[in-house]
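Morning run. Coffee first, then this:
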Amino acid sequence: MNKIDHIALVVDHIQDAAEFYSEKLNMDCLYSDSTWALLRNEHLKIALVLEDSHPCHIAIRCESKEQLEKKGNPNQHRDGSLYVYEVGPSGNAIEWIYYPPQ
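And here it is:
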């Protein structure tokens, strides 16, 4: 079964968007810099990204590295998670993501 890990929205300004979604959706900001932010509440995680850094996407969590590798050749995010983007016909993407045990 596919489990949504997060939804990524392309925004013009990370800090402005982080403040807006934090307030409107009662979310905590887990991480923020000039290129992206990650917000979370008890029901949802939202990544805020700039257009030239990440595509707009829905991230689906993979349960194993082998499951992820069936989607393509993984890359690594700065937090150590592994991912593969699969772009759909309208330019939006699915990010298949796996978090290795630490």
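DSSP finds two helices and eight strands in the chain. Good start to the day.
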